[in-house]
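A further point concerns the way the authors explain their paired sequence and structure data. The central task, working out the structure tokens from the amino acid sequence alone, is never made concrete. I therefore recommend that a typical entry be quoted early in the introduction. An entry of this sort, consisting of the sequence and the corresponding backbone structure tokens, reads as follows:
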Amino acid sequence: MRLRQWPIGMRLLVAQALVLLAAIISAAVIAAVVGPPLFHEHMLQADHAPDPSELEHVERAFRTASIVSLGIAVLTAALLAFAVSWFLSRRFQAPLTRLQRAAAEVAAGRYETRVPVGDAGPELDALAESFNTLGAQLASTEHTRRRLLSDLAHELRTPIATLQAYLEGLDDGVRQWDQPTRNVLGDQVTRLARLASDLDSVSRAEEGQLQMTLEPATTAELVRAARDAVTARYEEKDMRIDVIERGPGHVAVDRTRFLQVLTNLLDNARRHTPRGGTVTIDTHAEDDWVTICITDTGDGISQSQLAHIFERFYRGDTARTGDEQGSGIGLTISRAIVEAHGGRLDAYSRGPGMGSTFTLKVPALTT
């Protein structure tokens, strides 16, 4: 087996052993070369000069004592060094082995696998934390993917079934190709197209991949543009939009994305407000935040539904009984876009039949 194929613990142990061996050889050579001549010189400088036989005996005793002492010291140092090297090797080897096994688990699709942090030193702990963060991100992405496929299958079922039924009716002669049939088929195709676009937007938003170009704007011009975009649809239901501006609000936003949020909220309010109702847009700046409140006089939201309205494809009872349905992810997209701007989007309602208020807050542009 090649050296690079050895486990890291074994390589660390061998490296420590080589360092210790080099230290022992160096100490032995230096002791053998320097020790005896130096001792002999000191003996000659002594007050009582020994005779040659006595000098030879003393120097032999010195060499023997030096060799024995050095041997005991080397053996003790070797044992201690081996113990320390074994401990350090195990300390490094164990977390790396766990990390390797965890990586194999993640590669096999088990993204919930995690490695312990806090027992292997700052460097390996940082590596473990990064690995766990990666695993959590992969798990989140996989959850998003599975949920997207499940939601997509659920949402595609109705328009596809409608299209299939009408096409079979046309083939069997049960239905005729007339304007009502064309309108139904066109509506279902439009719904599918809108669903595909919304799914792409919400997936990008939830994964933090929305491409945004921030530019300065005022709440007045943004609200005016959003109101103009939905005015025709509001007039079809004889509804009115009132705007209350309490002081100028300056923000840095992606204009297209932000207008998407405002029009989503206004369309949502229109869908859930009876004919002849009113929607109010109230804007004001406070401290470092700009707030836009959109309040309707419509169906309202129960407390049990408030906790879920920003979930993908969630629709309350009133959403299913209205004249038209959204894609079911408009509010999800809106909240994700607002959060990408560093803001937040919340909903409040006193209950069914009491209307609802959506409050949008984004950081104010500081000059």
